[in-house]
Every structure is written in C-alpha cells, then in structure tokens.
C-alpha cells in the first residue's frame, strides 16, 4: 500500500464497483477508473476517505480474488 493518500479527488473521477456487489450497495470497494498508479480505492458506504495501493499490491489482491471461491 502506498503511503500517499490523495488529499482530494478530482470532481471528474469515475468510481467503479464490482458487478458482483449486493443490490443494496453495501460492503463494497470502489476503484477510481482511469488512474493507474497509485490505485485509489474507497468504501462504497463512506466515499470520503481514499487509500491508494501500488500497482503490484493491487494486482496481487485482485489476482487472489479470482482464486477464492
């Protein structure tokens, strides 16, 4: 995980949530589209704080999701 959390997100930032998310929108992460390094991630229920992951860490996380049932 990167140490540098963005201070602000541009108003044009588009956030994406997994299509596997529950219909109520809870318990999900959202990822900013069009930003590749670091990868900004936030909680869908509380969109204020954003954390940023390095590309390798994010790739490992996403890769692990595909291996769990």
Protein model, in words:
- The protein has a domain at 26-65.
- The chain is of the alpha+beta class and 69 residues long.
- It has one helix spanning 55-65, and strands at residues 14-17, 29-33, 39-43, 50-53.
- Strands 1-2-3-4 form a 4-stranded antiparallel β-sheet.
- Strand 3 and strand 4 form a beta hairpin.
- It contains 1 helix and 4 strands, in the order E-E-E-E-H.
Record the SSE blueprint.
Blueprint: E1 14-17, E2 29-33, E3 39-43, E4 50-53, H1 55-65
Antiparallel strand pairs: 1-2, 2-3, 3-4
- Mean pLDDT, as a whole number? 79
Backbone structural class: alpha+beta
Shape: globular
How much strand content do the residues show? 25-35%
What level of helicity do the residues show? 10-25%
List the uncertain runs. Answer: 1-8
In total, how many beta strands? Answer: 4
Question: What's the N-to-C terminus distance?
Answer: 25 Å
Q: Write the H/E string, N to C.
A: EEEEH
Summarize the structure.
The chain is built from 1 helix and 4 strands. The protein has 69 residues and is α+β, with helices and mostly antiparallel strands. Strand 3 and strand 4 form a beta hairpin.
């Amino acid at each position: 995980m990167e140490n540098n959390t963005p201070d602000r997100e541009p108003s044009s930032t588009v956030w994406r949530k997994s299509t596997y998310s529950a219909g109520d929108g809870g318990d999900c992460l959202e990822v900013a589209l069009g930003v590749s390094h670091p990868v900004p991630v936030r909680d869908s229920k509380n969109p204020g704080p954003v954390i940023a992951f390095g590309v390798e860490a994010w790739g490992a996380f996403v890769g692990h999701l595909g291996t769990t049932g």
